[in-house]
Every structure is written in C-alpha cells, then in structure tokens.
Write a structure and sequence with these properties.
The complex is a heterodimer of chains A (about 140) and B (about 600). With about 140 residues, chain A is α/β, with parallel strands linked by helices. Helix content of chain A is about 40%, strand content about 20%. In chain A, strands 2-1-3-4-5-6 form a six-stranded parallel beta sheet, with helices on both faces. In chain A, strand 1, helix 1 and strand 2 form a beta-alpha-beta unit. Chain B is built from 17 helices and 20 strands. The N and C termini of chain B lie far apart (about 150 Å). Helices cover about 50% and strands about 20% of the residues of chain B. In chain B, a hairpin with a 5-residue loop joins strand 19 and strand 20. The chains are: A alpha/beta (about 140), B alpha/beta (about 600). Chains A and B meet through helix 1, helix 4 and helix 5 of A and helix 11, helix 12, helix 13 and helix 14 of B.
C-alpha cells in the first residue's frame, strides 16, 4: 500500500530504466512535485535501491536487458516492498498492461506520453488508484 | 561186349572156385559200379593223405556215369613195421574186400607200391596199378599183370635252398632238418646240396627228439636259414608228424625257415619249392579214370609231378624280406590285403567326401568373411551417413539459432535504442507543440504524426524480428498477440490453452511461437480457410500444440521439399527433442501437431529470447 503523503512533503521516487535520456526526461517531468531519490539502469540495481531507499513510488521500465521490469516488480512484491509501481513502456498493448497489473503495477504509462501522463500516474498511484495511458 | 561179359563170368567162377580173391575186371562193364582201392603207406592222419584222397575222389566223382566207389586203406608201415604187420594188412584187405571187385589200385608212396606189387597176385591180380612215389617202377615191369602207371614225385630240395639264398643273399649258414626213419632221406639231401658247399656252410641237425631239435634251432646264429625237409619222431604212444614239427621249429626259429613240402605251407615256413599234393591226387585220379574206361595202364606214360614255388607273404613280411626278391611265378599265399586294398572304395569315398566337405566349409568361410566385410562396409557407410546427417541437423539447428540470435539482437537494438529515441522525439515534439505559438500549417503536429508512424513501424519490425513479448509476458500472451495481428475479416482465428506452465524454457517458447507464427501465416496466406484454431495444452510429458485449418490443404510430400517453411518447423522441433507432424490433403484442410517434452532442468538455451 502506498503511504499517504501531504502536499508539503515531496514524493520520493525511484527511477529504473536502461535508457539514460529517458531517466533524465522522467526526472525532469517529476520535478519539482517529486524528489527523485535514485535512478537505476537495470533490474537488480533497481531492486537494491528500492530496498535501501524505500521510495514512495518506483517508476519502472517494462523492457530492460536481462531482468525485465515485470520481473523486478514481482521480485519486489515478494520482498514486501510497499512502494507503488508505475510501469513505463514503449509497448502500448493490452497484453502488456494486463501483464503489468498481474506483476503488481498500479500505473502504466506509454513512453511517448511520458511528459503528460507520468506525473498523473504517480499522483494516482499515491492515491491508490490505477492509471493507464490511452492505447493507440 | 558179349565176350567181355563172358570173360567176367568165367573169371568170377574161377575166383569163387579157386580162392577167396577179389573180383577184378579190367574191362568193366558199362553201367556196372567200379571200385578203386587207394593204399596209403602212412596213417590216415598224415597231412598229405587227406589232400591226395581229396584230389582222387574229386576226379572220380566228376564222372558219375562211371559209378565209381573209392576205398582208402592205410598200411601204416611207419608205425607198424615188420613183415607180420604187412602180412596182417594183406589178410585184412583180402577178407574185407572178399566179394568185391577191385577195378584199379592206387598206391601212394614207394612203400605202398612195394606192398601192392608184393600182394598183387593174391589180392587183386587183374587190377591195374597206379602209383605216386619217388622211385616208381622200371619200365620193364610196367606191363606185368594188368599193367602199371603213375607219377614220380621228385624232390626239389636244391631249388628250395636256391630260393632261400635268393630271398636273402647275405645268408652264410644253412641248417638242414632232415631226419627220416632211416638215413636215406638225409643222404638224398646231402647229394642235392653238394654243389652249395662253397657258397654256404651247411649243417645237418640230426637230433633224434623234438625237444633236442628245438633246442638246437634256438641256438642258430644270425645270417642263417633253416631248411626243413623232414623230421619225424615215432615212438610208442608218442607220434609227431613232420608238419607238426615244422610248426614247432618255425615257432622257435630265430632265422627264416624254409620247407620242402606243401603241407608245411602255413605252418610258419617262409616258403619252398614243393609239389602240389592235391594236384598229384588229381593227376593220379585222372589216370585211374583212364584205366577204368579201357586204357591199358602201361599205355599211360609215367608223369613227373610238377613243382611250384610258394611263399608265405606273412613270413617274408615278418623277416623283412623284400617282395621284389620273390622269383616270378611264385605262388604268394596268405597275402593280407593292405588297408588300401581292402577299403579302397571306402577310403576314396571318405576322402572325396572329406575334400567336398573341406571345399564346402572353405567356401562357407570365404562367404562368411566376405559377408562380414560387406557388413562392415555397410556399417561404416551407415555410420558415415549418420554422422553426416547429424552434422547437417546440427548445422540446421545452428543456422536457426544464429538466425534467431541475430534477429533478437537487431530487434533489441531497435527497441532499446531506436524506439526509445523515437519516444523521446515524440515527447519533444509534444512539448514543442505546446510551446510554439501559431504553428504554420500544423507542422509540429505533422512531425509528431510522422514520428509516431516511424515508432509504430519500428515497433512492428522489431516485433516481427523477435517479439519482446515472448520474454516479457510469455508464450500464451505472444500467441494471443499473433492471433490479434493476423485476424482479418474473412478469417477467424481462435486460440485456446490450458495447463500451460507460467514459465517455460526459452528455446521451447521460441520454438512453439515460431511454429504458431509460421503455421498461422501459411493458413492466412494460402489456405483460404474460414477458420483456424490454435490449441496449446499442457500434457504430462510436456506441451502439445495443434493448429488446424479448414482450408484447401496441400500434398505434404510435395510441399516438404519446397521452401523452408515445413522443413524449418521440423528442424526446430527436432532440435528440442519433440515430434512434428503435418496432416493435409488437397481439399481436406491442414492439421499441424507438435509435441515437445518439458525438461526438468531448463534446457540449453541455444536460441536467445
């Protein structure tokens, strides 16, 4: 369960994506509403960071080399992580959305819509509500 | 004829009136039985006598029309010497044959001839005499009475010694056994051997008893021969005939023994030049027949008995005498046929059989060896074939693997780099869209649309090359994706699945996905099917994938060789140890069945996912 926050306290976010530009863009989009407590470039690093930093929200890329975001999410759930998971993906198909939900994601943002949708998805996630970018 | 009958009657009457004499008649009446009396000087058991009798009787019996009776009597003067015994024998004959007519008398040996001549007038005055003896009679006396004829049986002692020396030229000494009742025998032998004196040393063994003779024989040195002429030992209750002595001598002799009578043949002597006693009997018998059939005895010339050389084959073998030394014309007796002579046919047959069998066995062995070679070659080529087949399969699998790896690499490149960049570009354009005031001609929107179009194309291309879904969301989701992608208005694709494990080995996932992809694409492109169903079932052994369409179908055998579709599907399944079957007939739809095993340990992931 995502922890409840007040508007004065910035939301602590962990970013996990293998693409550096994407990491930078996401951080840009989330600031200043959120504070990016960490950024990881692969699944295992992401898991370590999540367990160490205990962020409120984890923004997780679905497809990464090696461990995929779906696997990272499943792993975190097994490790009783309380962070809300918002998936970020270039795949805008229902099968992926479904898989993301099964893996424990509450939000699903299509990467081209990152600028507009990510902050909403994070906010919704904090409120305990799912969010999915409109699919093409 | 009448005259003769008359004479017979007159004589008969005279005989009856005068004295108890035999009835004799030289010119016997036809049809009336005739009688022949044989007088031997020796006993019945003397070895020569049965032979002579047999010869005589054989001839007489060969003329049954003459109805001849033959009687043998034995003077036995050796055993019963003296005038009284001889006289008693004469009396015996007279009384025995009283009332019988004797038509001819045969006297065996000079002694018997002497008796017959002495008692002729009293016993058988009218019977012609036929003799067999050494001396015989003077020509002058032959026409006395009813006449005399016969055979002189000569002695061949010298010839026998000559034979002995021929058979063993190294002989140095000769031991002669020639002990008769008196010295006459010995004298005769000495006379015969006079000429041999310088050639060999001749010793006469004149031992009176058999034991002493045998002792002397045993002492004879090597390089000697024994010439056995005669040895008789006669005493009251102890009579030994010369043939028996010959046997005893031959038994103990350390050197070869030669004999001078044919009745020594077979007693152990090596050989000798002898007369044939039986033949003598035959000749004498023939003379008797001639006399009985009317020939005057004195008109029949006196014959000399023929001598023959006989050799006992067993003895020359025993003494190691070469058969080549045996003079030509010699009668070789007791020759034991060799194994070859006796079993020639069997030996030849057995040898032939053996050779045939050997040839057969050899043939079979050669054939077996050839067959083994051929089998070896076949095995070799089979192994080579298998190796090359496995190499090809391995190569196929590697090619597929390499292809998949390359596709996967390109797909990932497209996704991880190009797609991300495009996403970022899209974001930038969107930002730009908000920032630019009064966009002339909606340029930013157009750019955004274009960027989105490129992103979709890249995504599709990446997906076709290697679906990221497989790894990210699994086989079932990936097949759902295929189902959605390929569904068209005129074709209905259904996908059912059950018992599919959530995680599967990557190579198996890829294999089943690729087969589904290929089969669905084929169905959509070529089958004109209205309906295609894909079923994925978890079964105890693994997974079963079935893809069925109701399209036009095709000939599987023909299609197999064309293109890579069916072949590569089969190769993929084989590479992970599964089975692949395609059932199709023109007009009857197509059914593809794949069964793959699920290994306990996740398989060797040769193909990246």
């Amino acid at each position: 369960m995502p922890s409840s926050t007040t508007s004065s306290e910035p939301v602590r976010v962990l970013l996990v994506d293998d693409n550096e530009a994407m990491l930078a863009r996401a951080a840009e989009v989330l600031t200043p509403r959120c504070v990016v407590v960490g950024a990881a470039k692969d699944g295992p690093t992401g898991i370590q960071a999540a367990l160490a930093l205990r962020p409120d929200v984890i923004v997780l890329d679905v497809s990464m080399p090696g461990m995929s975001g779906l696997e990272v999410a499943l792993w975190l759930r097994k490790a009783h992580s309380t962070a809300a998971v918002v998936f970020l993906s270039v795949h805008d198909e229902e099968a992926f959305v479904l898989a993301a939900r099964v893996a424990g994601g509450i939000g699903y943002v299509a990467k081209p819509r990152l600028a507009s949708d990510l902050i909403i998805a994070v906010e919704e996630a904090l409120a305990g509500r799912p969010f999915v970018s409109p699919l093409r | 004829m009448d005259m003769r009958i008359g004479a017979g009657i007159v004589l008969g009457l005279a005989a009856t009136l005068c004295a108890p004499t035999f009835w004799t008649n030289v010119s016997a009446q036809d049809g009336a039985p005739r009688s022949v009396l044989v007088i031997h000087s020796g006993p019945e058991t003397f070895p020569a006598n049965p032979l002579l009798d047999a010869g005589i009787r054989e001839v007489l019996a060969s003329r049954p029309e003459l109805s001849i009776d033959c009687f043998s009597e034995y003077l036995e003067s050796d055993l019963f010497p003296g005038e009284q015994a001889t006289q008693a024998f004469g009396d015996y004959l007279r009384r025995k044959y009283q009332g019988h007519r004797i038509d001819a008398v045969i006297a065996i040996t000079d002694t018997a001839l002497h008796f017959a001549l002495s008692h002729r007038e009293a016993l058988f005055p009218d019977a012609p005499l036929i003799f067999s003896g050494l001396a015989g009679v003077d020509e002058a006396r032959r026409s006395m009475g009813a006449g005399i004829t016969g055979m002189t049986v000569g002695i061949a002692y010298a010839e026998t010694l000559k034979l002995a020396l021929e058979l063993d030229p190294s002989t140095e000494r000769v031991f002669v056994v020639a002990k008769g009742r008196d010295d006459r025998t010995l004298e005769a032998v000495r006379a015969e051997f006079r000429d041999f004196a310088p050639r060999v040393n001749i010793t006469y063994l004149n031992e009176p008893t058999v034991p002493r003779l045998l002792a002397a024989i045993k002492a004879i040195p090597p390089r000697s021969v024994i010439l056995y002429v005669w040895h008789s030992q006669q005493g009251p209750g102890h009579i030994v005939y010369p043939d028996q002595v010959a046997r005893l001598v031959a038994e103990v002799a350390p050197v070869p023994v030669y004999g001078t009578s044919d009745f020594y043949v077979g007693s152990g002597v090596v050989g000798g030049v002898v007369r044939d006693t039986r033949e003598t009997g035959t000749r004498v018998g023939e003379m008797a027949v001639r006399v009985l059939t009317g020939t005057r005895a004195q008109d029949i010339p006196i014959e000399g008995a023929r001598v023959v050389t006989f050799i006992d084959w067993r003895q020359i073998t025993r003494w190691g005498i070469s058969e080549a030394r045996v003079p030509p014309g010699a009668l070789i007796q007791f020759k034991q046929p060799s194994a070859w002579d006796r079993y020639k046919i069997y030996i030849l047959a057995a040898t032939t059989l053996l050779l045939a069998q050997t040839a057969l066995i050899a043939g079979l062995l050669i054939q077996r060896s050839r067959r083994r070679q051929a089998e070896e070659q076949v095995r070799g080529s089979q192994a080579a074939l298998r190796t090359s087949y496995e190499r090809i399969r391995d190569l196929g699998a590697r090619l597929l693997g390499a292809q998949e790896n390359e596709r996967s690499r390109i797909a990932r490149e497209l996704h991880d780099d190009v797609s991300q960049q495009l996403a970022l570009l899209e974001m930038d354009l969107k930002l730009l869209d908000g920032a630019v005031q009064g966009d002339p001609g909606g340029l930013v929107d157009e750019a955004l649309n274009r960027a989105q179009g490129i992103a979709r194309s890249v995504h599709d291309l990446s997906h076709r090359l290697h679906p990221a879904k497989l790894r990210l969301i699994g086989l079932v989701a990936a097949i759902h994706g295929l189902q959605r992608e390929l569904s068209q208005t005129n074709i209905d694709i259904t996908f059912t699945h059950d018992n599919v494990p959530p995680t599967l080995p990557p190579d198996l996932t890829l294999c089943l996905f690729r087969i589904s992809q290929e089969a669905l694409q084929n169905a959509v492109k070529y089958s004109q099917a209205r309906h295609v169903s894909v079923c994925l079932h978890g079964v105890p052994e693994g997974l079963a994938l079935t893809i069925v369409d109701d399209g036009v179908g095709f000939d599987v055998d023909t299609a197999w060789g064309k293109g890579l579709g069916l072949v590569s599907m089969g190769e993929r399944v084989e590479a992970i140890g599964g089975t692949f079957q395609v059932y199709s007939k023109p007009g009857a739809g197509t059914r593809v069945e794949v069964n793959v095993p699920l290994r306990a340990v996740e398989g060797t992931a040769t193909m990246a996912v």
